[in-house]
TrEMBL record, chains A, B:
The UniProt record lists the keyword Transcription: yes
Native organism: Anisodus acutangulus
Database matches in Gene3D superfamilies: Homeodomain-like (1.10.10.60)
Name of this chain's protein: Protein WUSCHEL
DNA-binding residues (ranges): 16-80
Amino acid sequence: MEEGMSVRARGGGGGTKCGRWNPTTEQVKVLTDLFRSGLHTPSTDEIQKISSQLSFYGKIESKNVFYWFQNHKARERQKRRRIFVDEPKAEGFHFSCQDNNITSTKHFSEISNFNQVVEQPEKVKETLQLFPPNSLNESESEKLRFFAEDCKENSAFSYNIGPEKDHPTLDLRLSFL
Amino acid sequence: MEEGMSVRARGGGGGTKCGRWNPTTEQVKVLTDLFRSGLHTPSTDEIQKISSQLSFYGKIESKNVFYWFQNHKARERQKRRRIFVDEPKAEGFHFSCQDNNITSTKHFSEISNFNQVVEQPEKVKETLQLFPPNSLNESESEKLRFFAEDCKENSAFSYNIGPEKDHPTLDLRLSFL
DNA sequence: ATCTTATGAATGAACG
DNA sequence: CGTTCATTCATAAGAT
């Protein structure tokens, strides 16, 4: 493992198979260097600058830089997390680090399913107006409130939407909108 | 680290783990079609209706639809933004160097036509015929695996990264950060 | 060739 | 909305 420098210098060379970005050693070095020096989350502008600079060493795009930092940081983090768990040197306490389902219900829990649906104007003129004006005033973040999470802890029973995939007529005409 | 699995797009069938929403291919297709047809920011009602319809294909909640549109829109822009800087010469299309074989990857460029996708009338409601019998119906798409970047053979200047490649002129002055 | 590891890429979820 | 995080998928490179 590690970034044990291996020979990957082929970025600028010849037939680089263009499946996915394959950074050159120089590119990796610079990126790693930047990371080590404290740049963990470059801004968009920085990403573009870095990408631009690194393009000297070989084919690269800003999204590659973006992903690189994303991944590097995440893996650093996860590595650290793993060590923390795998190496409980501190005998004092235990840690049940992962519940594997901690993701939910952070602030979703605050909403009641009852809504502040202000009012549903029945402006039915001409052709059915299906677009309540009030929804236009909603900010996106407020919309989220409507969708109160309630991840039914699943499973054992609850879905009945079986593997019924054949579904002949895709009647999702969506004219319902 | 993990095992290299290859299963994707498991429909609403099996033991759907309630970790996070895993859209079926049908769901993704419909959502994508809606988006491409101009619905970029669905209202609360639309979200609920879409969710309701899509629930036929598998477990789904309104918030999933909400997030899907948020993410898709944001990433569409992000990509567009990036293309702008990475490829100043806006060409109408790009080509793929993707060799044959390997998992599908039939990326029909979704973002390539950026000179026409710009802000359509946001309200695509009422009877919108979304599924023309013979539209560009990609019969089956594994997963949207686009992001086709053109593989410039970086022919211009090949940086032969020799053993001691010290960038002459263009030195990485990382002080630009 | 097959398994394993490292890492590029994608995306659902969520934050500020 | 633009960003960031967590997880997962996919794949190139090593190891066996």
